[in-house]
Design a protein that fits this description.
alpha/beta, elongated, Bifunctional GNAT family N-acetyltransferase/carbon-nitrogen hydrolase family protein, 19 strands, single chain, hydrolase activity, Acyl_CoA_acyltransferase, C-N_Hydrolase_sf, GNAT_dom, 23% strand, twelve-stranded mixed β-sheet
């Protein structure tokens, strides 16, 4: 009779598919504190894929630690957790940083005795040694301090007392036992950490294989990480039935795939051509109900095309009535692996709100694709910088902007703001708009567009920050290759470094939680500092 082999504990690099398990672990490890959001965990993983580790036992995540690379001048100076962690997203990560900074450490307390914490710290050490970093640094919790404050006095005295054996603190003790040395106290590190009275120990471990007198100089390699982008400037035209509409769309998908494009993007409201074969005039609400009937078939067809032609399709946007009766303008992104993702327009224009009674969505989230995380902002949303910044904090390097504008002024608002988003977030922005007119369909009388692929403005990119653009008001497919590695270089070593130079100590985007965010069982809207964090 064969014996059942014991369960194996494995430590590996975290991937986006681990987000739910990580959130469940942190919720159990810190039951009395506000958890991370799915977007923040995705940001940690996407911003520094090599620096996040999970411990897995019997297919369950029982440990997690998050890290980023930080420059010594920042890592060893006084700081707080929101500032050093990029408000929980890990967006402060510097690929040329010479220290590995510990953002988070969480362990399943029911699995004591498996030395999960030590295994995760060892994984960090191996990473720091492989990257030839100067060491590891973090702000560590001191959960026994609040209880012993009257007896211990200042937090510095409490730390000395723990080292001399006068007080017992399980976290400080663990850090000391694992080779970390305190270099001071960080006040107001996590104000919500009542057990630590908001203080943290400033812990370091120095890499013995790096000469402290000769700090390594890191440069971002100028390799090629090419992605081919295609944007459809679509002629609005009447169709005789649904099949003809699908045929028109599939033509452009086929051509973009023939050019081996990784993405093809369609304009906002491009599905309104489906109203052109209605036999009678529809009121705005009747039109919405008819479009809602087309939603499922459209998504099914786009998903079929994505898989058949091996291309990721950003399906413009489609007005639809949701299950709760609310009318939303939704972009459906169909990936070549068969998955479908939706993004609601956050800011309806005054015209949309009046004419179609469209309501705004409540969250933006990156979409994990085979070339990395991307984001979608529908038309007017590109004019609100908070949204693009949220996507980039989650790791997006490409933002798609399907738009529908009826005149040059409206188009230029979208164009100029999208160029600003590309510069301030050091990312690529792809615009796709409608041209022509659609007789018989209310609110689609005339269209103006010049679809384009925009870049940051720095040495690796096109002179004017335009990788490619279509001619004005002519149906066209515009294609360009972009190098994602150029973004990594620009963010670390560019002439200006908009992301790295943000003043996290002065401002942040604080999103309110909402109930309608994403399919995960947790809300993806970010908010301010929380207690999990440190180490």
């Amino acid at each position: 009779m064969s014996k059942k082999s014991p369960a194996k504990l494995k430590v590996r690099v975290a991937v986006p598919g681990d987000v739910r398990g990580i959130l469940a672990l942190i919720s159990a490890a810190y039951p009395d504190t506000e958890n991370y959001t799915a977007g923040e965990i995705r940001g940690q993983i996407n911003n520094f894929p090599d620096g996040q580790f999970v411990a897995v036992l019997e297919k369950k995540i029982v440990g997690y630690c998050a890290s980023s690379r930080i420059d010594e001048a920042i890592a060893l100076a006084p700081h707080d957790w929101p500032t050093i962690s990029g408000n929980g997203f890990g967006s402060r990560h510097d690929p040329t940083g010479d220290w590995l900074y510990g953002i988070e450490m969480a362990v399943d307390e029911s699995r004591r005795g498996l030395r999960i914490g030590k295994r995760l710290y060892d994984a960090r050490r191996v990473l720091a040694e492989r990257l030839e970093l100067r060491g590891i640094v973090f702000g560590g919790r001191m959960p026994g301090y609040a209880r012993q404050k009257a007896k211990a006095g200042k937090p510095e005295d409490y730390l000395i007392g723990v080292r001399e054996g006068k007080f017992r603190d399980p976290v400080i003790g663990f850090h000391l036992a694992n080779g970390f040395t305190p270099i001071g106290i960080l006040p107001k590190y996590l104000p919500g950490d009542k057990e630590s009275a908001g203080f943290a120990t400033h812990m370091v471990w120095r890499n013995p294989y790096v000469d402290p007198n000769e700090p390594p100089e890191f440069r971002v390699p100028r390799h090629v990480e090419s992605v081919r982008l295609a944007t459809v400037q679509l002629q609005a035209r009447a169709v005789k039935d649904f099949a003809e509409f699908v045929k028109n769309v599939e033509y452009f998908v086929d051509v973009a795939a023939d050019y081996r494009s990784d993405f093809v993007v369609f304009p906002e409201l491009f599905t309104l051509s489906l109203l052109s074969f209605e036999s009678e005039t529809l009121s705005p609400m009747e039109a919405i109900d008819r479009l809602t009937e087309h939603r499922a078939p459209i998504v099914a067809e786009l998903s079929r095309m994505a898989m058949r032609y091996n291309i990721n399709i950003v399906g413009g946007s489609h007005p639809t009535r949701t299950e709760d009766g609310t009318i939303k303008n939704i972009a459906y992104t169909c990936l070549r692996d068969g998955s479908v993702h939706s993004q609601e327009k956050i800011h309806p224009t005054p015209n949309e709100a009046y004419w179609w009674k469209i309501k705004g969505g409540s969250s933006v989230n990156v979409i994990q694709t085979d070339i990395g995380p991307v984001g979608v902002l529908i038309c007017y949303d590109s004019e609100f910088p908070e949204l693009a910044r949220r996507l980039v904090d989650e790791g997006a390097r490409i933002i798609f902007v399907p738009f529908c504008t009826d005149n040059r002024q409206g188009y230029m608002r979208v164009r100029y703001c999208s160029q600003a988003r590309a510069i301030e977030n050091q990312c690529f922005v792809v615009l796709s708009g409608n041209v022509g007119n659609l007789p018989g369909v209310d609110n689609m009388d005339i269209q103006y567009a010049q679809s384009c692929i925009l870049t940051p403005c720095d040495f690796p990119f096109a002179r004017d920050g335009i990788a490619a653009e279509a001619s004005e008001n002519i149906e066209a497919l515009t294609i360009a290759d972009v190098n994602l590695a150029d973004l990594t270089w620009a963010r670390a070593e560019g002439t200006v470094r908009n992301l790295a130079d943000r003043r996290f100590d002065l401002y942040r985007i604080d999103w309110r939680r909402s109930k309608s965010s994403e399919s995960a069982p947790v809300d993806a809207a970010p908010r301010g500092p929380k207690v999990p964090g440190g180490g």
